[in-house]
Amino acid sequence: MFEKLLIANRGEIALRIQRACREMGISTVAVHSTADADAMHVRLADESVCIGPPPAQESYLNAHAVLSAAAISNADAIHPGYGFLAENADFATMVEEHGFTFVGPSPEHIRRMGDKVAAKQTVQEAGIPVVPGSDGAVAGPDGALEVAAEIGYPVMIKASLGGGGRGMRMVASADEMRDAYNAASHEAQSAFGSGALYVEKYLANPRHVEVQILADQHGAVVHLGERDCSLQRRHQKLVEEAPSPALNPEQREEIGRIATEAARRIGYRSVGTFEFLFQDGQFYFIEMNTRLQVEHAVTEMICGLDLVREMVRVADGTPLDFGQEDIRFFGHAIECRITAEDPETLQPAPGTVNMYHAPGGLGVRVDSALYSGYRVPPYYDSMVAKLIVHGANRNECLMRLRRALDEFVIDGLTTTIPLHQRLVGASDFINGDYDIHWMEGFAAGAAAEAAS
Ligand code: ADP
């Protein structure tokens, strides 16, 4: 097993990985920008290396700086966390070429599945249903118009290399196509370095259901159940739960089997997620994430496995020591992503935490790098805490979530806790009756209520 692991990330996920390593007897190296010198992930690591100035491009996204830090600290392996360099195939290649182990999938899998068009083709060849749409990227707005006329409006145009909900537009009719295409392509070009777009049928009321996969280097693949991530704003997840309240046992079985088979067919290793839209009893693949996800914690809570530990073990070549039949699911888990943002406008609101008090008690987990006196820097993602709650069933989980949110104090910072508090009181949410569009309407209603 590795002796020393460098974590190429910051915030809660850096702490999450450190904790798993400590329990495995692996010492950790934190990297940080000058803006993060006082950050918790630096304080708690065995060693730390400053890798550059505040902008992520010059620090957390600077592959050479990260590799130098690994070299001078004598690390054996590098865990990328999520975001930053996690889905950068060139970085994964460089890590291996420099003699370190990349704690994640092979660079080829990152590359192939990171291109959403190639990913769709790959899983389609493995017999998995995808959202109907163009065969690959379209040739400009005219190509998009042609495909849309065939599949029928409304359609969704999406960036081939997209992520984080960017470079995506719903197009209701042919008159809107040119403007929408140009705007999405422009956004995709600046965010992902390619303006290539593809077209998909727009699904009117689906749920987002995704399956967690874990695979070792010896061909063993298991799934760890599904997560429902339909509560989204701007196509970004806000709340996730496991299991999905929308699936019956047969559908659950079916999607787990489909995702496991897909991972096996492509020869995948490490953790990974197959994302689907689910509507009228049908699953449609949308994309695969070749990394640990923010919402991995809800899966851990219902199956009792430490996903980071498993990820580190399989990266080291250790075979999985359990099979699908050994995995048991118990109870229900919900995660709230708490961001330092105005709950109505979602504008980032960095600031200083005067007083921090995290909720606790049975079934309550808080993954956060906050502490009293911490100044949230304005340079990075605005997520400051994940509140993950587990209960014997969904109802117990909801009651626990409500009381945990009421206990949570992040004084001095404007956060989305009030929005989550409203959400746990909403009857549609309590009934599990929501689709991917529901949250936008609810948040708009909550904003109007707050203003009146
Ligand atoms: P990204 O890679 O940017 O996260 P995804 O392809 O995963 O993009 O889609 C993000 C979200 O956008 C989905 O969870 C869903 O809510 C919405 N979405 C994506 N494709 C469609 C579609 N064809 N119809 C309706 N909504 C969609």
Q: Please, what is the average pLDDT?
A: 96
Strand line-up in the sheet with most strands: 13-12-9-10-11-14-17-16
| DSSP summary: helix tally | 15
Q: What is the CATH top level name of the largest domain? A: Alpha Beta
Low-confidence stretches: none
What is the strand content? 15-25%
Could you estimate the helical fraction of the residues in percent? Answer: 25-40%
Q: What name does the CATH topology of the largest domain carry?
A: D-amino Acid Aminotransferase, Chain A, domain 1
Q: Span between N and C termini?
A: 59 Å
Number of E-type strands: 18
Name the ligand types. adenosine-5'-diphosphate
Shape: globular
Q: Which radius of gyration do the C-alpha atoms yield?
A: 21 Å
| Classification by helices and strands | alpha+beta
Summarize the SSE layout with pairings.
Elements: E1 4-7, H1 11-24, E2 27-33, H2 40-43, E3 47-52, H3 63-73, E4 77-79, H4 89-97, E5 101-102, H5 107-114, H6 116-125, H7 140-151, E6 155-159, E7 168-171, H8 174-192, E8 197-201, E9 207-215, E10 221-233, E11 236-242, H9 249-266, E12 270-279, E13 282-289, H10 296-303, H11 307-315, E14 332-339, E15 355-357, E16 364-368, E17 383-391, H12 394-407, E18 409-411, H13 417-424, H14 427-430, H15 438-451
Parallel strand pairs: 1-2, 1-4, 2-3, 4-5
Antiparallel strand pairs: 6-7, 6-8, 9-10, 9-12, 10-11, 11-14, 12-13, 14-17, 15-18, 16-17
Helix pairs in contact: 4-5, 7-8, 12-13
The structure holds adenosine-5'-diphosphate.
Adenosine-5'-diphosphate binds at residues 131, 156, 158, 162-165, 168, 200-203, 208, 232, 235, 275, 277, 286-287, 436.
